[in-house]
Design brief:
Layout lengths: L2 E6 L7 H16 L3 E6 L5 H12 L5 H25 L4 E4 L1 H4 L1 E3 L8 E4 L2 H8 L3 E5 L2 E3 L5 E3 L5 H11 L4 E6 L20 E3 H9 L7 H9 L4 E5 L7 E4 L11 E5 L2 E9 L5 H11 L4 E8 L6 E8 L3 H10 L1 H4 L3 E5 L2 E7 L8 H12 L6 E4 L3 E7 L3 H13 L2
Helix pairs in contact: 1-3, 2-3, 6-8, 7-8, 12-13
The structure holds adenosine-5'-diphosphate, aspartic acid and magnesium ion (MG).
The site of adenosine-5'-diphosphate has 19 residues, from loops.
Length: 403
Amino acid sequence: MSLIVQKFGGSSVRDAQRIKNVAGIIAETYLEGNDVIVVLSAQGDTTDDLIEKAQEINPKASRREMDMLLSTGEQISVALCAMALESMGLPCVSLAAWQVGIKTTGAHSQARIRKIDSERIRSELDQKRIVLVTGFQGINRQGDVTTLGRGGSDTSAVALAAAFHADLCQIYTDVDGVYTTDPRLVPNARKLDEITYDEMLELASLGAQVLHNRSVELAKKYHINMEVVSSLERKPGTKIKEVVKMEKTSIAGVAKDTSIATIALKGLEHAPGVAFQVFNMLSKNGINVDIILQSFGNVDDAKEISFTVSRKDLDDAVKLLTENRQQLRFKELETDDKIGKVSIVGAGLLSNHGMAAKMFEALYNAGINIQMINTSEIKLSVLVHEDDVNKAVKAVHARFFDE
Ligand code: ADP
Ligand code: ASP
Ligand code: MG
């Protein structure tokens, strides 16, 4: 007997038919003699629809009230799926994250799981019940509902797998595994049988929507046996593990992210501490910065610092920087939200310089201008105009996988 955590995403529980299909998968796992904890996302586009409803009433609604609203989607899914299991005569119970005791940090809309109480779930499992838990949410120290960021149900599943020492955490979705790039954009993308935690973490962080990046971080930390599988077809998916069998000759995949924007600070004083002040202020105000480029401007002895932020943080960042212009010692601020990031990820990237040249050549041949470049041990990202992002993914993917 094993303990298995099964997570089903929004499209897998889209309507009654899909919920019955999911109940069938859960039933099969349970009837094989396993303990099963199920994590569900909101049905179909429910979360987007709820956001739209909020926008109609108050586009500046507080994050606390947004969390109250968005967390309801998952509650519908677990209740409906429990009903489907009940109709099959299977013992089950649906629980909202606050009933379980999924404790998070306080930051509404981007909370992190701190700890999961085990008593309630343990006692339900001991009574041989299938436990269905709402994904994407928890409660903070004030007892208020929090959410974990878009796509966060994957993280709920892995956190539960870690808390209960599950033998396996299965992420069921609408594709049959992790591909070398989004198969909806590049139909001949290849399915990976396995991928390392590190590569998957980079792909997820760089925009591959198939897994929430934090879920991979947790899976690596707690050595969770994790796989991405299709809820619609029975076939092997992709295993995410510490080490993969084959010696890699190419990259693992290509990812894109169009949810970013750049900010350029111009005419900055060329003195120690300038960069520290800017980035310290941003970080203290909860604004994450990704790629940073510093260069000398044309004017006097001044320098320029350009960096990327999440597009949703752009207005807050600009307001903060502009209000503190004197103190931060810059003359002008420019923004660009018509950009996107295209990245390649692979364990051997840094030790294989040919990879970077190959990527740049593919972009050059496609006539795409690179605005910024960023590298790390296992990834290489470029910023390009937003309109060029899909073309860039296709060109780079073809260069690495079709030739
Ligand atoms: P769920 O609702 O099940 O959580 P998501 O929509 O969050 O599903 O993630 C699945 C989607 O991720 C796929 O439909 C696919 O279009 C997209 N995707 C992006 N990059 C990849 C990739 N490298 N491999 C597989 N799917 C990817
Ligand atoms: N329903 C949430 C979202 O759409 C969480 C998830 O699907 O993982 O972001
Ligand atoms: Mg998802």
